[in-house]
């Protein structure tokens, strides 16, 4: 939660004084001004007359005075002195919402998706309410409704993810525990590494955005993976399930024991919460006693910055691939080439480490190692 600066800037102090002397409600307005503008950079505060900042704050208090519990309140408008007390060359987006993570990031993403630039962002948190005054590129009034709809959708997605975050994390931790006794067509090392990876991901290395369970059912004589009704959480709580897929699409053709327990890949859907990009996918496969896949627990989200900063030998599953590749290379760890190979693994994009099979990773890093012997360009591909 945001807090006021310990020492208000001269501009903010002067503004609070002006608010206090502005009328019968001056005292309340001065207290609001001090908190509303507490985190606005001094350069921004100095760029406009105090009267403008005061008018923005007064207008915002009227807008934010009443809000339905659990629902965001927002508006998009082109300021007009007669209606709002100030003019601006920008369009203004104002939001009042329950305080929760990812709000600013997700709203910014929704605006960027529409090609709308942000010129000023005021974002205090006051009494557990997140308040946003955002000045954006000038928009035509006929576009206001579409912008509001996009922002409401983003805020709704954030709320779903935040509400279900703890439940999704608990399911992942429970799945890690259950792997100890589940029937799995892997050895004990791969089983333990898969358990450790799920616990590692749940330990602030994965931002949970969605979850759903799938079961194998016979559809038109073919074994297909179908969504379990009512199992969706986060972004998948309300999202419609895709058509049933053939089991071969999620279980066949995967080499390496560790890939038989977990599916680590990217989705073809972009995140609407936190940060842009295709979401990460962690699938936990469930097998029957005969080693036949019968279900999947699917987690969608984004690896955190902490995950991308970890060394390969610090990440479960990845550390096993790291050791296998070093051993398979036949290079002594203390040799020049051995150190170079270890450095390549350490600096390779983490998505490659998560998603590549051992064979794919070995081919890539050995190819990169060979490039050090002569300067040339090379493109590495994997499916």
Q: What structural class do the secondary elements suggest?
A: alpha+beta
Determine the strand fraction and express it as a percent band.
Answer: 15-25%
What gyration radius follows from the Cα positions, in whole Å?
Answer: 26 Å
How much helicity do the residues have?
A: 40-55%
Count of beta strands: 12
What is the overall number of helices?
15
Order of helices and strands: HHHHEHEHEEEHHEEEEHHEEEHHHHH
Q: What is the straight-line distance between the termini? A: 43 Å
General form: elongated
Mean pLDDT: 91
Low-confidence stretches: 1-5, 252-259
* Biggest sheet architecture: 7 strands, antiparallel
Structural features, described:
With 383 residues, the protein is an alpha+beta fold. Helix content is 43%, strand content 21%. The protein contains 15 helices and twelve strands. The strands form two sheets. Strands 6, 7, 8, 9, 10, 11 and 12 form a seven-stranded antiparallel sheet that branches. Strands 1, 2, 3, 4 and 5 form a five-stranded antiparallel sheet that branches. The N terminus is likely disordered.
Write the layout of secondary structure elements.
Elements: H1 10-20, H2 26-36, H3 42-46, H4 50-64, E1 73-77, H5 81-84, E2 91-98, H6 103-113, E3 118-122, E4 125-126, E5 129-136, H7 144-178, H8 188-202, E6 206-219, E7 222-227, E8 233-234, E9 245-246, H9 248-251, H10 257-261, E10 262-270, E11 278-287, E12 293-303, H11 305-308, H12 318-329, H13 336-347, H14 350-355, H15 358-371
Antiparallel strand pairs: 1-2, 2-5, 3-5, 4-5, 6-7, 6-8, 6-12, 7-9, 10-11, 11-12
Helix pairs in contact: 1-2, 1-4, 2-4, 6-7, 7-8, 12-15, 13-15
């Amino acid at each position: 939660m945001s807090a006021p600066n310990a020492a208000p800037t001269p501009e903010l102090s002067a503004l609070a004084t002006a608010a206090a002397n502005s009328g019968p409600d001056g005292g309340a307005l001065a207290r609001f001004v001090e908190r509303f503008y507490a985190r606005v950079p001094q350069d921004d505060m100095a760029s406009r007359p105090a009267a403008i900042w005061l008018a923005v704050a007064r207008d915002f208090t009227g807008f934010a005075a009443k809000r339905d519990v659990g629902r965001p309140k927002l508006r998009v408008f082109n300021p007009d002195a007669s209606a709002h007390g100030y003019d601006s060359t920008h369009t203004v987006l104002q939001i009042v919402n329950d305080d929760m993570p990812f709000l600013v990031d997700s709203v910014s993403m929704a605006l960027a998706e529409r090609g709308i630039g942000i010129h000023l962002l005021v974002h205090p948190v006051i009494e557990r309410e997140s308040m946003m005054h955002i000045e954006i590129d000038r928009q035509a009034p006929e576009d206001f409704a579409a912008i509001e709809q996009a922002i409401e959708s983003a805020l709704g997605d954030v709320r779903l993810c935040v509400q279900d975050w703890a439940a999704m994390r608990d399911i992942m931790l429970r799945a890690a525990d259950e792997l100890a006794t589940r029937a799995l067509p892997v050895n004990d090392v791969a089983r333990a590494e898969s358990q450790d990876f799920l616990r590692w991901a749940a330990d602030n290395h994965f931002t949970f955005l969605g979850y759903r369970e799938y079961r194998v059912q016979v559809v038109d004589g073919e074994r297909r993976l179908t969504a379990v009704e009512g199992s969706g959480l986060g972004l998948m709580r309300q999202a419609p399930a895709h058509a049933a897929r053939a089991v071969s699409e999620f279980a066949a053709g995967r080499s390496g024991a560790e890939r038989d327990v977990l599916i680590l890949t990217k989705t073809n859907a972009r995140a609407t919460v936190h940060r842009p990009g295709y979401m990460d996918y962690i699938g936990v496969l469930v097998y029957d006693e005969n080693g036949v896949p019968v279900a999947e627990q699917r987690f969608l989200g984004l690896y955190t910055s902490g995950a991308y900063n970890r060394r390969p030998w610090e990440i479960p599953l990845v550390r096993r691939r790291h050791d296998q590749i070093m051993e398979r290379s036949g290079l002594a760890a203390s040799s020049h080439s051995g150190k170079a190979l270890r450095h390549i693994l350490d600096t390779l994009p983490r998505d490659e480490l998560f998603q590549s099979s051992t064979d794919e990773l070995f081919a890539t890093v050995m190819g990169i190692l060979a490039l050090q012997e002569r300067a040339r360009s090379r493109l590495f591909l994997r499916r």
